[in-house]
Design goal:
This protein is α+β, with helices and mostly antiparallel strands and 483 residues long. It is built from 10 helices and 24 strands. The strands form 7 sheets. Strands 19-20-21-22-23-24 form a 6-stranded antiparallel beta sheet. Strands 2-9-8-5-6 form a 5-stranded mixed beta sheet, with no helix packed on it. β20 and β21 form a beta hairpin. α4 runs antiparallel to α5 and α7 runs antiparallel to α8. It is elongated and about 195 Å long.
């Protein structure tokens, strides 16, 4: 290749002329088809670029036209904007300074306080709270004013308007409780914190209760009756720093002056024990009181076992009683409690006819008594004697005893005769059921006169007795004798 400047022969691969230093540009040869494709591509790219330029120019033109229109209407737009601004300012001022605004009452209260009239300031806030009960700013300001006046109780009562109304969110309720607790903490009234949180079961305050009120301890042994020594452990339900447990035995509720729980409580003597325990935290706040009662019956004999249960019976029955070894059974039938001086049970007792009430007790060699066991029995035999048979049995018995001369009721030495009339049925305690038969004397003229004598005939076996009354007015049986 020759240099285009000086015709010097340039070796292949050199980019500059070795003679004159001219740069050698190598232009590749293109085929016509390739060159046409390149031209078409470049032309398309140019068209796209021109299209984007046109779109950009159109946007600029529309924006310019829009601002020109706005510029022409500027006075109208400015007037409308000014009117709207004045309206909004007016609404805001009306809201702030009208009687329905919390800002109005707070501004009035602050002004009264600044003039030294705290009572008037309180009145403004109370009025505002009455008109706007759901506004917390008024309530908190009211609480703050009470605190400034040194009245912590009223400061807390003001905040209770939030916690007790039921109209506020959980967040606001919790915040109100936290403020009340803060007031009590500053006043070191920790017992009031306990009262405050114990008086509510609101789930929102659960975390506060856990923080300020310790969990109640639990008894390791349930209350009840025991025949041996009982060892009671108090189980704390939390392990927070500063928490301790105090307890009492047969005394009032525990305090920090009660017995400090350090070791298990041993109940090894007979008697009844009521243990009360409570956990106190570092603030001196007490948990709820846990209470259990234990009855120690060490050495007390078991109650006697009476084989025959209370109830109705229709045949001869023996009452059987069994006690622990070394114990003696005593019983009564008059309703009094049995003692060592009562009737001693030696062998099975024949159940008396009619209604009976027994009380049994077991007494050991040391004189210790068991619990009393009671039984009520009602023994009535099946009726085998009718009313007519009862009257006939009575007359036959009186004839046999020579009280009557014959079955017609003739009486020796007396005119007329006796007649015997069924009257009623009765139950005699300890004896059973009886027919009551009345005796009348009938004269020869047919006049019937009661003699005043009553007879009782057993409904089961027909046995005959005179019927009388004891000193308490109860029926009693009298053996018939020859008059």
């Amino acid at each position: 290749m020759k240099c285009p400047n000086c015709d010097f022969e340039i070796p292949e691969g050199h980019m500059y002329c070795d003679n004159c230093g001219t740069e050698i540009k190598i232009v590749p040869e293109f085929e016509p088809e390739v060159e046409n494709e390149i031209n078409e591509t470049l032309s398309s790219v140019a068209d796209e670029l021109n299209k984007e330029d046109r779109l950009r120019e159109e946007k600029i033109k529309r924006r310019r036209e829009f601002f020109e229109k706005i510029n022409k209407r500027r006075p109208v737009i400015l007037a409308c904007f000014g009117t709207l601004l004045v309206f909004l300012i007016g609404i805001t001022l009306f809201t702030l300074f009208s009687n329905k605004s919390s800002y109005y009452y707070i501004r009035k209260a602050d002004k009264a306080r600044s003039l030294g009239n705290s009572e008037r300031a309180i009145e403004y806030l109370l009025e505002g709270n009455a008109n706007l009960p759901e506004n917390t700013d008024l309530i908190y300001r009211l609480s703050d004013y009470y605190l400034e006046m040194g009245d912590t109780d009223k400061a807390v009562e003001a905040l209770k308007k939030i916690t007790e109304s039921g109209h506020f969110s959980e967040e606001k309720v919790v915040a109100a409780y936290e403020s009340m607790i803060s007031i009590y903490e500053q006043d070191q009234s920790y017992d009031k914190i306990s009262e405050l949180l114990s008086a509510t079961d609101n789930p929102a305050t659960a975390a506060l209760r856990d923080k300020f009120i310790p969990a109640a301890p639990q008894m390791g042994v349930a209350g009840g009756e025991y025949d041996d020594i009982v060892i009671v452990a108090l189980l704390p339900q939390s392990q927070n720093d500063g928490e301790v447990t105090y307890y009492t035995v047969n005394d009032g509720d525990p305090s920090e002056l009660s017995i400090l729980y350090e070791n298990e409580i041993v109940l090894d003597e007979e008697g009844e024990y009521t243990i009360k325990a409570a956990t106190f935290n570092r603030y001196g706040i007490s948990s709820q009181v846990t209470s259990e009662t234990y009855v120690i019956n060490k050495g007390v004999p078991s109650p006697p076992e009476i084989m025959e249960p209370s109830g109705d019976y229709a045949q001869n029955t023996m009452i059987v009683a069994v006690a622990d070894a070394g114990c003696t059974i005593f019983y009564t039938t008059d309703g009094s409690d049995p003692t060592i001086d009562s009737k001693q049970y030696i062998s099975p007792i024949t159940m008396p006819v009619g209604t009976s009430h027994y009380k049994f007790v077991a007494i050991n060699d040391e004189g210790m008594m068991s619990e009393i066991v009671e039984r009520d029995y009602h023994l009535v035999f099946t009726r085998l004697i009718s009313k007519e048979q009862a009257v006939n049995s009575l007359v036959a018995t009186l004839v046999r005893l020579d009280i009557l001369l014959d079955n017609t009721g003739k009486v020796r030495g007396i005119e007329g005769h006796n007649e015997y009339i069924y009257n009623s049925e009765i139950e005699i305690e300890g004896a059973g059921e009886y027919y009551v038969v009345v005796e009348n004397h009938v004269s020869n003229e047919g006049i019937s006169t009661p003699t005043g004598l009553l007879y009782a005939v057993n409904t089961h076996d027909g046995s005959v007795n005179r019927l009388g009354y004891d000193s308490s007015g109860k029926y009693t049986l009298i053996k018939i004798s020859n008059r």
